[in-house]
Amino acid sequence: MGILDKLPILTTLAGDRTLRIAVTGLSRSGKTVFITSLVHNLSNAVGRPARLPFLRAAAERRILGARLLAPKADDLPSFPLDDTVAALAADPPHWPASTTDLRRMRLLLRFSTAGFLRAAGLLRGDAGALSLLRTNPFADRPPRYVRAQYYKYTFTTPDERRVTGRWWHRELVGAFTEPVTLPSR
User: Fold this and answer.
1) Does residue 138 have a pLDDT over 80?
2) How many CA atoms lie within 13 A of 128 on its CB side?
3) Residue 58 is assigned to a structural domain of this protein
4) Which structural domain, as residue segments, surrounds residue 16?
5) pTM for the full model?
């Protein structure tokens, strides 16, 4: 089986961006507070890299948005996020009620990927990365943003090649990565 045979599988895996997290632990160990803190901070991390400095996407300002999704009709009971945040933010704050049964919360988190471009060093003006290009379009200084687009290439026919001199047709499929930038220092 060649790489082209595996492409549909890889495409499906790359497109599935669902992350399921289960939190387990002893009774009264802080699971409810942990989940509340994680979701609350993710929901408020847009443009605030200090919120979650240990999370690379937040530190690099790549979190574009986050919002809670409505539970599905066949879902488990909802996690009591609002009540838990209210307890922790009360004056004086108090420990929220324990979550004693299985609960579910759905969060949509949008972020831009770091992509292979950052690793390639284009944004840092790395000579090795720039040597991969026919000409250096960034001779004065490295770019602030870089994006990659996905094209579909098909070979021209021999007759087209003789007439046009082109070896292939190129058709834009879409964005391969969101625009990426280095984190501000």
Assistant:
1) yes
2) 5
3) yes
4) 3-111
5) 0.54
